[in-house]
């Protein structure tokens, strides 16, 4: 089969060995894969795949099951699925633990389904399962125009939260159309002041942060009493000083997780939660895949260049 391999920080479409399904794994014949910011880090050598994962990039895909490994129950060859991957989505076929498979949500095409597993599992596990975002609370999403952000805005609205986003001004109109109540231009505005203004001085109950060190102190300033901050990205650095006094005064929580490094049973529990709680919202049309554009899989390098520019809104897909 063919896959995208990384050689000297470049992506190359080349022939590679066929994947073999291990115990409780299936082979998925890939229809579409999605580009994630982490794939760019992997290309640069900063984000190696966890042990046992394929070397090729690609954290999610959709496609059709073409083979079953030993012990797989409840799935069949020919089934249309999408999947959360530890790697290997930029390929014609990939081995996937059965617990990381999801059905194609009702009303979506097989291609569209590739845009959801990584963002749905990341946002749900942090914002719903861990931070317990509730109806009536205020939810601040940094990087509202990202793949993660466009999903988080819609999920926050579907759960009944008031949603505030930071993004470049050019993306604001489309983010309001997705449900954002307040859009903050982080290049021109102080987001702490904007959050306080929008909440009568109270602050945000839940913050989903992709910037990291650069925003830690200001996220605590922007937090409501009892607020929760989930840091899932370090685009603004990983090392920061934490003012525990400021956090204590808010009775706040800061947590940080990585989805990719979690063991298969943990990922499978997250996938099951997403299927139960998020897939009905997708089927109801309350949460949609936001697809900026598509590229042929063999042209993944162009797709990554677009992501580097940050001119996209939502997801960039790679098609077989
Ligand atoms: N921990 C995990 O398990 C996990 C899983 C998935 C993703 N992530 C992380 O989540 C982040 C988003 O991933 P993605 O694949 O959705 O990336 P993406 O689509 O490439 O989005 C990145 C976004 O960052 C925004 N941005 C840059 N500087 C900003 C700032 N100072 N304030 C606010 N926004 C800013 C850009 O939007 P503008 O055009 O508005 O600047 C851009 O849209 C990445 O950092 C990724 O590593 C973490």
UniProtKB/TrEMBL annotation:
InterPro entries: ADH-like_C, ADH-like_N, ER, GroES-like_sf, NAD(P)-bd_dom_sf, Quinone_OxRdtase_PIG3
Gene Ontology terms for molecular function: NADPH binding; oxidoreductase activity, acting on NAD(P)H
Pfam families: ADH_N, ADH_zinc_N
Signal sequence, start to end: none
Xref: Gene3D superfamilies: Medium-chain alcohol dehydrogenases, catalytic domain, NAD(P)-binding Rossmann-like Domain
Domain Enoyl reductase (ER) residues, every copy: 7-318
Recorded superkingdom: Bacteria
Keyword field contains Nuclease: no
SMART domains: PKS_ER
UniProt-listed NCBIfam families: quinone_pig3 (TIGR02824)
Protein name: Putative PIG3 family NAD(P)H quinone oxidoreductase
Native source species: Actinoplanes teichomyceticus
């Amino acid at each position: 089969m063919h896959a995208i391999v990384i050689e000297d920080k470049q992506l190359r479409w080349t022939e590679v060995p066929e994947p073999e399904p291990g115990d409780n794994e299936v082979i998925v014949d890939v229809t579409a894969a999605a580009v994630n910011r982490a794939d760019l880090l992997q290309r640069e050598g900063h984000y190696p795949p966890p042990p046992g994962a394929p070397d090729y990039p690609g954290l999610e895909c959709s496609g059709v099951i073409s083979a079953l490994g030993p012990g797989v129950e409840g799935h069949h060859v020919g089934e249309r699925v999408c999947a959360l991957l530890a790697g290997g989505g930029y390929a014609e076929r990939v081995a996937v633990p059965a617990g990381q498979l999801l059905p194609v949500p009702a009303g979506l095409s097989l291609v569209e389904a590739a845009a959801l597993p990584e963002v749905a599992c990341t946002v749900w596990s942090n914002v719903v399962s861990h931070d317990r975002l509730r109806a009536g609370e205020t939810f601040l999403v940094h990087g509202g125009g990202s793949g993660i952000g466009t999903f988080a805005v819609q999920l926050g609205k579907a759960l009944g939260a008031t949603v505030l986003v930071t993004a470049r001004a050019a993306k604001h109109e489309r983010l309001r159309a997705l449900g954002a109540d307040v859009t903050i231009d982080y290049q021109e505005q102080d987001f702490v002041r904007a959050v306080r203004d929008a909440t009568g001085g109270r602050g945000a109950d839940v913050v989903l942060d992709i910037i990291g060190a650069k925003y830690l102190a200001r996220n605590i300033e922007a937090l409501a009493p009892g607020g929760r901050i989930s840091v899932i990205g370090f685009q603004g650095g990983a090392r920061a000083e934490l003012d525990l006094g400021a956090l204590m005064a808010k009775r706040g929580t800061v947590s940080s997780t990585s989805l990719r490094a979690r063991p298969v049973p943990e990922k499978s529990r997250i996938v099951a939660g997403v299927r139960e709680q998020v897939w009905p919202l997708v089927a109801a049309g309350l949460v949609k895949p936001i697809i900026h554009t598509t590229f042929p899989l063999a042209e993944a390098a162009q797709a990554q260049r677009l992501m580097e520019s940050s001119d996209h809104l939502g997801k960039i897909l790679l098609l077989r």
